[in-house]
Amino acid sequence: MSLVASGVTRHYLRHRKSHTALSGIDLDIAPGARMALVGESGSGKTTLLKTLLALDRPDSGTVTLDGTPVAPGSARSLRWFRRRVQYIPQDPATSLDPRKSVVDLVATPLRLLGSEGDHRALARNALAAVGLNERFLQRRPSELSGGQNQRVAIARAVACEPEYLLADEPVSGLDLDLREQVLDVLGELSTRTSTALLVVSHDLSVAARLCSDISVMCDGSIVESGSIAAVLTNPSHPHTRALLDAVPRLRSN
Ligand code: ADP
Ligand code: MG
């Protein structure tokens, strides 16, 4: 019972040449797992998340949830999957419907997914938890800053109380105070509802704060994985060592 990628491969055409974005990825996210996914820019993290979310179709390999294969399809056919697996995109501003108000952006998925309860009240609670109060409820995405849109996207995913939450650099656009607040929201969700987290972050301190396990990507492959404590104290792959060297504070702790 878990969200699993098996042998997932994805190529893109670039200058008429095939470029391998994912190269035979195997990844098993167990219920309640808290896994960080790190790796330099272009290593395939976003492509892997999109594949796990059935937003992108692999060239070969499969993604399964509790053994049932999932692949991009109609919203209706994926509804059961979306109820259980949610996403915080890397670039929330472009993924939010510009015509909708903040409160509708969060309440609409709850309605479409058939969540129980008062959808607008649930949306207001989720928005308050990420520091967006009543003043923001009727605004459109274009009237918000990048960090505010990011928090709308986080509230939207968290409000659904998914079993799996895949977050792509969830706090990268936020200043320090908000970053703490949002990390608390994600940690609290994971603890309260046993939501599994897969968190992409270039910041290893975010990974260490939220997650217990880590997978390191390099050139479309997972080159190292294990408990954060073990990987950070004794990295085996040169790429992991290079990432660690970029964060001297963690290394000396
Ligand atoms: P990361 O999130 O780790 O920075 P990505 O998954 O975004 O990496 O990208 C992995 C590789 O695939 C990169 O070389 C990127 O240029 C390429 N890539 C990603 N999306 C596309 C696309 N839609 N078309 C062409 N190439 C892409
Ligand atoms: Mg990315």
Automatic annotation (TrEMBL):
Keywords: ATP-binding, Nucleotide-binding, Transport. Gene3D superfamilies: P-loop containing nucleotide triphosphate hydrolases. It comes from the Bacteria. SMART domains: AAA. Pfam families: ABC_tran. GO terms for molecular function: ATP binding. Residues 3-244 form the ABC transporter domain. InterPro entries: AAA+_ATPase (IPR003593), ABC_transp_ATP-bind (IPR050319), ABC_transporter-like_ATP-bd (IPR003439), P-loop_NTPase (IPR027417). The keyword Transport applies. PANTHER family: D,D-DIPEPTIDE TRANSPORT ATP-BINDING PROTEIN DDPF-RELATED, TRANSPORT ATP-BINDING PROTEIN. Belongs to the ABC transporter superfamily. This is ATP-binding cassette domain-containing protein. It comes from Rhodococcus sovatensis.
